[in-house]
Amino acid sequence: MTTFLTKLAPFVRLVRFLILSLAFLGLAVCLGAQVVVVVMRYGFSSGIPWLSDLAGWSFATLVMLAIPVALTLDGHVRIDIFRERQAAGARFRTDAIATLLLFVPMAAAIVITCFPQFLAAFVQGEASSQAGGLPGHWIVRFLPIAGFALAVVMALAQLVDRAMPHSKTDETRK
Amino acid sequence: MSGQAIFLLILLPAVMAALLSGMNAFVAIGGVPVLIALLASATGSFDLALLNAVPARLTGIMENTVLTAVPLFVLMGAVLERSGIATAMIEAMTRAASGSARKLSLSILALSAILAAATGVVGATIVMLATIALPGLLAAGISKSRAAGLVCASGTLGQIIPPSVLLLLLSDQVSNAWLQSQRQSGNFAADPVTASDLFAAAIIPGLVLVALYAIWLVAGPVSRSDENISANQSTTATNPSSWIVPMLLPVLLVVMVLGSILAGIATPTEAASIGAFGTVLMAVLRGGQSLWNALWLAAIDTIRLTGAIFAIVIAASLLSLVFRGLDGDLAVDALLLHLPGGQIAALALVMLVIFVLGFFLEFVEIIYIVVPVAAPALFAAGVDPVWFAVLVAMNLQTSFLTPPFGLSLFYFRSAAPQVATLEIWRSVAPYILLQLAGLALVAAVPALATFLPSQL
């Protein structure tokens, strides 16, 4: 079992790298597209619907992928008044219970409720609601599913990593 | 008692307990309600079909053009911080005013107000002030406890002086609650409350706070060490250009961003994109060997903070769905609308709850938990939404300063370990009183908040 999990480690690192890259792309494209939209609107009095869509959709990408990224960086908000005095073992137990008992059902609720809408959008080839907007609106519908599924995978991978005897990464908040 | 009422009574204490356990806050806020919904549905007290509203809630967050401004404003602040632009501003101001304790205190306050308008994120400003300005303040003879209070309090101005992330998120929730209460009373053409309205509304109250701080700095008690400054520090005549130059571009950018929003020319998101792009451009022009590294780190900061904020926003929408599913909104309405003392008592109660929650929770959590629950009832009772939002913003800003969980205090302690925790707590006490005075002023004179938006 342990060797199998160790073999998974490079895969988890790759996924983590991909999520971070996509979130970065979301931020960069969101900023770039939004700036061009502003320049076109105020400089040339013309609107570009597909570019506004691009800005909005890359914002959605950023938001949904930033959630698993923040998880891998332990960047989420915690109230650490009691936690800061706890030993690593107690912190691990809290996080394990939180992940298995609370986060998995929460993410499942999001994935399960979002899936039918994504599927419908995908089958119908739903496009932007704006005339002249982008096609493929199902991508936006897929983002919460991807974001929360990936967040669960990352949370579980972290738990496994911390449960390993050789683990060096005690994910504690600074 | 019905099963539904029992689950409703368990819900909030269970969320609170989970939060205090130290788990990721968004897991506590979103996971506990889902678990309770599952348990309640097993006993027939909750209809799981209500969770089918989740995709619409998520779409409302992901495709919200106002919320798009949040990561852009965060990026603007992160680039200013990581690129060294903000550092240069603080250094220049500290140099220019060195020698006089009062002058230095006032210039740190003025600088904080400018940085506040530029970044809108508390942590960065406080850490920068604590690492860069604190040594100057101490060298000028200001006692540790006075300097700590000044830095912590000035750093929180970012939340009230627009454009700020707090006001953006607040406008999202207040406008929802406002439209909802208007629809319920049959008004389907109510004027919406926009982020620009709140930005305009917060300007005068923000400046009132700056003025109160300034009066305290000038007229407040002077410790013995503060008096000796002119004796042990010669006033260095500084060339004005040495501090004007580093300030010029950032101030210009802030004026442009805020001005274009308030003049109604640009939406907050449009202005935020120009602001973020402008700071990146300034960083590139400034150059430096570690430029790309600094920009990359600023991007990572932005992604991490965006994830942290929106995880809570999404989790809180789950909480409010389950809360409504258990008829919690009806219970709150009944409580607030039948309180002896009417509108004022209801508003005072909500303010008190927010103030107390501020000791434990962060502003994002409070905005997304309390506002959707309490605001519709208050609006139905006739409370002005803009006035209410500004009161909430000032209240939340105070919570950054209140021990033991005030975020400002944590940031300050991590950046300036030489000041003891108790000393920090004592040092912010006068500022908490000033904040409450400012809050009382705006509560007594609603026009301070509502005048500017009405002029837009």
Outline the structure in words.
The complex is a heterodimer of chains A (174) and B (456). In chain A, helix 2 (49-72) runs parallel beside helix 4 and helix 3 (88-124) packs antiparallel against helix 4 (138-163). Chain A is elongated. Chain A is mainly α and 174 residues long. Chain A has 4 helices and no strands. Chain A starts with a helix and ends in an 11-residue tail after the last helix. By secondary structure, chain B is mostly helical. The interface between A and B is large, with 59 and 64 residues.
Question: Can you give me a brief rundown of this structure?
Answer:
Chain A is mainly α.
Pick out its properties.
heterodimer; A: 174 residues; mainly alpha; 4 helices; B: 456 residues; globular
Question: What is the number of E strands of chain A?
Answer: 0
Chain pair with largest interface = A-B, 59 and 64 residues
Which stretches of chain B of 5+ consecutive residues score pLDDT under 50? 226-235
The whole-angstrom Rg of chain A is 20 Å
Query: Percentage of helical residues of chain A?
Result: over 70%
**Low-pLDDT runs of chain A:** 170-174
Tell how many strands the DSSP assignment of chain B holds: 0
Mean pLDDT of chain B, to the nearest integer, reads 83
Count of helical regions of chain B: 22
